Task: inverse folding
C-alpha cells in the first residue's frame, strides 16, 4: 500500500521549476475557469488586476500592499503571485525582509511557515534573473 | 541534496487519481482517528454528517451552503468533499460558477487559488462520471 | 472617570431601531466613501450587488449562500445585510435555523455569538413586517 | 441628526455590569434560538458544553485550551465565556498573562485589542469575587 | 426589561470623541496589562512598535502596510491605530482610497463594513486636524 | 503534458520521512531567512521560542496551548511543530484526542482535514520513538 502522506513538499529537480510550475498551473486553470463565461467571475478577476495599476500610489507600493495582505491571510499562491510582481518592480531583499517582519508581527507565528515558503520562491526568482542576466 | 520545495502541486498520472487519492486518504485517516474512541470527536463528526440531510432545505441546497462556506474559509479538502456531494446531487457547471462567483466576491481574491483547485477537482469528477456512463 | 467598557451591546429603545440604525449607518457611510470617486472601489461594490441577481441560481438561493458565508466568516454587518435580503425573499424561520446549523458546524463554536446576534436581528425584521402587515 | 458612530465601547455605570450584561444577553438569546427546536443546533451546543468536562485532561486545562483558541480566533464573546470558566476554575492572573502571551505570539498583534478587552472582563470578574467574598 | 441589543454602534456627542475614546481606552488598558509584568507580552508589544520604525522602507510605507494588513484581517482597533499613524505621516485621502480598494479586493466584501468604520474614523481625524490648524 | 494537480499529498517511502522532511525543510529555510539579518524578524522568532519556556504554566501545558491554537488557525506546519514538542513532553494519545476534540468544536468541521494530517504526523512520531526505544 502506498503511504500517502499529508505533505505540502515535493521534490523538484531545480529551483527554477517552482516559478515555472506556479505560473503554468495558474494560467492553465484560469483559462479553464474563464471558459465557462461567468460574467461576475470574469469582471472580478479583471478588477483585481486593475487595482494594482499605477494610481496616486505607484505600482511598487501597491504590490507591497498586495504581498503583505497575502502573507497575513496566509495564502501561499497569492504570496507567490505578488512576490513575482514585487520582483519585477525591483523590490530588494532587505525591503522584502521588512515586509516579512511586519507580516509576522501583525499575523503572528502562524505566518512563519508561509515566510519560509515565500523565501524559497523569492530565491528562485533571484536565481532565475541572475541566470537570465548572465547571458544564458 | 534533494531540493525539497514548498509546493502543493505534484504529478499524478491521471486526473482520476485526484478523486481517488482524496477519498482514500480521507477514509483511511478517519478510521485511524475514530479508533481512539474519543466520544466528543465521534459525535461531532456524526453530527456534521447529519447536518446535510434533507430537512426544510433539501440536500442539494445544503451541499451548496457547505461548498460556499468551505470556499470562503479556504479549506481545500472541505471544498473537495462538498464538490463530490454537489456533483452527486446533480449540480451543473453553470450553477457551480455562480457559487464560485459569490465565494470570490465575499472572500476576496485570496479565494482565487482555491477556485482553481476546485475547478480541477470538478473536472476530474466530470471526467469520471462521463467515463462511467460511457460503459467503462 | 467614565467607565468605558469594551462592550458591543448598547441600549436601544426598541427592537425596531436595530434594523433602522443598521441601514441608516450603512447607507450614510457608503455615500461618504463613494464620494471620493475611487473607481476600483465603486466597481467592486457594484459587482458585489450584481452577484446576487437572478441567474441559473435564483436570488433566494444566492442570498442563502451570502448569509452562510457571512456567518462562517463572522461578519456581523454582512450577516445583517443578508438577513434583510433573505427576509425579503421569504425565507422562513425553520429554513434560517438550518442555515444557522450548517454555519455552526462548518465554522465551529466561535460562530455561536454571531448566531445570537443574527437571531436578534431576524426577530426585529419579523416584528417589523408583522407590524407593517397589521396596518400600522 | 444623531451621530451614530461605529464604536464598540459604550458607557456602563459599573464594571460589574460587563459580566452581568454578557451573561444576561447570552442566556436570553440562547433560549430564543433553542426555542425553534433545530435538532442539529441543539446537539451541537450540548456537545460543545460536554467537550470541556473532566476527561484525561482536567477541566482547568480544557478551559485554558478554550480560552487560547478563542483569543487567536479573536472572538470576544467566546473569550468572555472562557474567562468566566477559567476564573471559576481558579486560574491566577500570572497564569492568565502567560496564556495572553502565547495567544499574542501565535495570533499576532491583531490579538492585542482582544487582550485589552479580555483584561477588562477579567478585572470585572476579580472585582465581583472580591466583593462577594468580602461579605456583600 | 431593558432591550440590550447586539449593536456595535452607539451615540456619541461629537465625531471628535471617536479618536479620543479610542486612544483613552487603548492607553488605559495597556497600562493595566503591562502592570502584570509578563516579560513575553512586554517584549512583543515593544517589538511591534519597533517594526514600524524607519528602515530601508520609510515609516509612511510601513504604516500603509500595517493598515492594509489590519483591514484584510478585519481588526477595527488595529485599523484605527494605523489610520492615526497614517494620518500623522501625511497620507492623503485619495491614497487612503487606493489602500481601501486593495483591501476590499484581497479580503472581499466582508471588508466593506470595516471600510465604512475606517472612513468614519478617518473623517474624525481630518476634522480634528482641521480644527487644530484653524487655531482652536 | 504533465498533469499538474493541486494536491497536498505526495508519496513518501516511509512514515519516518514526514518528521525528517518537516524538520529538515524548516531548519534549512530558517537559516536562509535569518541570514538576511533582519533584526525584527530575528527578535520575533526568538521571542516566539521563549514563550513556551517553563513559567507559572509548565512547558507541557504551554505546548498544548500552542497546539490547539495552531489547529483552530489551521496551520499544518505549526501543528507539526507543536506535535513534536508535545510528544517530547510526554503527551499521551488520549490527551491528544481531547485536544483534537476541543479544536474541532471551537474551529468547526474545517479543522477536520488538519486533524487527519495531525494524526498521521503523530503516528509517525510514535513509530519513530517506538523504533528508537526498541534498540535500533
Result:
Amino acid at each position: 500500500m502506498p503511504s500517502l502522506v499529508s505533505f505540502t513538499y515535493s521534490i523538484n529537480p531545480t529551483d527554477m521549476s517552482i516559478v515555472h510550475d506556479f505560473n503554468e498551473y495558474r494560467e492553465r486553470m484560469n483559462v479553464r475557469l474563464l471558459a465557462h463565461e461567468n460574467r461576475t467571475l470574469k469582471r472580478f478577476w479583471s478588477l483585481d488586476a486593475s487595482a494594482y495599476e499605477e494610481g496616486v500610489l505607484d505600482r511598487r507600493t501597491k504590490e507591497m500592499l498586495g504581498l503583505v495582505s497575502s502573507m497575513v491571510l496566509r495564502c501561499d499562491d497569492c504570496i507567490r503571485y505578488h512576490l513575482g510582481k514585487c520582483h519585477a518592480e525591483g523590490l530588494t531583499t532587505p525591503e522584502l525582509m521588512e515586509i516579512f517582519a511586519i507580516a509576522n508581527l501583525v499575523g503572528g507565528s502562524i505566518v512563519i511557515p508561509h515566510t519560509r515558503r515565500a523565501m524559497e520562491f523569492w530565491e528562485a526568482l533571484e536565481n532565475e534573473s541572475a541566470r537570465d542576466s548572465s547571458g544564458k
